[in-house]
Amino acid sequence: MSEAFETLVIGKLNGAYGIKGWVKVYSYTSPKENILNYKPWYIKLDGQWQEVAVLNGREQGKTIVAQLEGCNDRNLAESYQGLEVAIAKSQLPELDEGEFYWRDLIGLNVINQAGEQLGQVKKMMETGANDVLVVKSPGGEELLIPYVPEYSVINVDLSAGEILVDWESDY
After folding, report:
1. Domain match, 134 and 65 both
2. Domain ends where: 27, 62, 91?
3. What is the DSSP string of 65-99?
4. Alpha-carbon Rg for the chain in angstroms
5. How far is Cα 125 from Cα 155, in angstroms, rounded to an integer?
6. What is the Cα–Cα distance from 67 to 89, expressed in whole angstroms?
7. Which domain holds residue 12?
8. pLDDT-derived band of residue 47, with 50, 70 and 90 as boundaries?
9. In this structure, are 53 and 77 located in the same domain?
10. CB–CB of 64/35 below 8 Å?
């Protein structure tokens, strides 16, 4: 595998399904069945990412099941339990100007228009109405800032590692 190869973990194998080597998959994608749109998958075997072809896959009840090339019996499928499923980051679709993947926002410094350092994005949260930046302040408090471009989020500068917001530390 090339040095430039970067993975993005999108799920986890969490058991065997049936007797023909199918695996149960816990998907981190939203919606969960989107994991089947990415091919090939990579799984870490013996400390190395190995490409694996997904021959078939579907929703099965509340889970996703998949048939992986070379996995033809239940015992082998069970041995894959707990392995992460990854894709090459290059498989992600290009975003339009001003759009960002959540993973790109996590870790950015958040600064308000007065130049005050509000903290660092620790995670993102989906609320239904809009996404929310979960920011850990320098004092250890958690700030919840709605991710609403041109309202509360003025600018995202990935190269500078900063998000400029219209927000105060005492909101």
Report:
1. no
2. 91
3. EEEETT--SHHHHHHTTT-EEEEEGGGSPPPPTT-
4. 20
5. 19
6. 22
7. 7-91
8. confident
9. yes
10. yes
DSSP 21-54: TEEEEEE-SSSGGGGGGS-SEEEEETTEEEEE-E
Neighbours of 28 (CB within 10 A): 15
**74 contacts: CB under 8 Å, gap ≥ 6:** 16, 18, 19, 20, 21
Judge whether residue 3 has pLDDT over 60: no
Using one digit for the tens of pLDDT, what is the confidence trace for 150-166? Answer: 899 999 999 999 999 99
Q: What is the pLDDT of residues 62-87, one digit of tens each?
A: 999 999 999 999 999 999 999 999 99
Rounded to whole angstroms, the Cα distance separating 115 from 120 reads 14
Residue where a domain terminates, one of 42, 59, 91: 91
Residues 80 and 153 in one domain: no
pLDDT mean over 2-15: 82
